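Q: Please design a sequence for this.
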């Protein structure tokens, strides 16, 4: 949170701009009036459209990686999910993809393929959210994969197409994701 105040000086037409940790209006002994304004930090996906980099990590044997979301995650606790992270100002999509996979799974990107994009409209804490998800299929080495964020993920597990948990056990966006990209995720099934 940032607190801003404008000082209107004793001379007509003069003012100055300061950041302070006070609220309301106050006058100083010299006769200047201060107006304090509280400005909350804007939230991606809620106050403006957020951009998410979403990745389906797989190995050379056709298995894919999912993480079970812990109670410390923003939402959908105990649900299986593929990886993802928000695009930060000044970072490229490719930098974010590599950084997030390294942070979450402690491994490097061996190859990646852009699958497409989705508009993701949800509700979180009673507020509507809107994200644009840039979806990738990413080859990783399973021997190097580890849980890099145990505070966010209770467990990492490898799955194949026939062992995907029931929809009720998945993040709410995954069934649509799997349906949308099934021909690209599992091309041998065509």
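A: Design:
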């Amino acid at each position: 949170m940032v607190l801003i105040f404008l000082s209107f000086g004793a001379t007509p037409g003069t003012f100055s701009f300061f950041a302070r940790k006070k609220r309301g209006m106050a006058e100083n002994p010299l006769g200047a009036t201060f107006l304090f304004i509280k400005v909350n930090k804007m939230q991606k996906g809620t106050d403006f459209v957020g951009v998410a980099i979403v990745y389906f990590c797989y190995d050379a044997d056709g298995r894919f990686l999912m993480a079970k979301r812990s109670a410390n995650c923003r939402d959908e606790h105990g649900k299986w999910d593929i990886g993802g992270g928000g695009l930060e100002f000044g970072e490229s999509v490719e930098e974010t993809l590599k950084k997030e996979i390294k942070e979450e799974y402690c491994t490097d990107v061996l190859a990646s393929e852009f699958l497409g994009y989705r508009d993701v409209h949800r509700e979180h804490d009673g507020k509507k959210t809107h994200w644009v998800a840039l979806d990738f299929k990413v080859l990783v080495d399973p021997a190097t994969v580890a849980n890099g964020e145990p505070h966010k993920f209770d467990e990492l597990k490898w799955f194949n197409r026939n062992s995907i948990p029931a929809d009720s056990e998945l993040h709410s966006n995954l069934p649509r994701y799997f349906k949308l990209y099934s021909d690209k995720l599992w091309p041998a099934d065509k």
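Q: Thanks. Anything notable?
A: The two ends are 52 Å apart (CA to CA). The mean pLDDT is 83.
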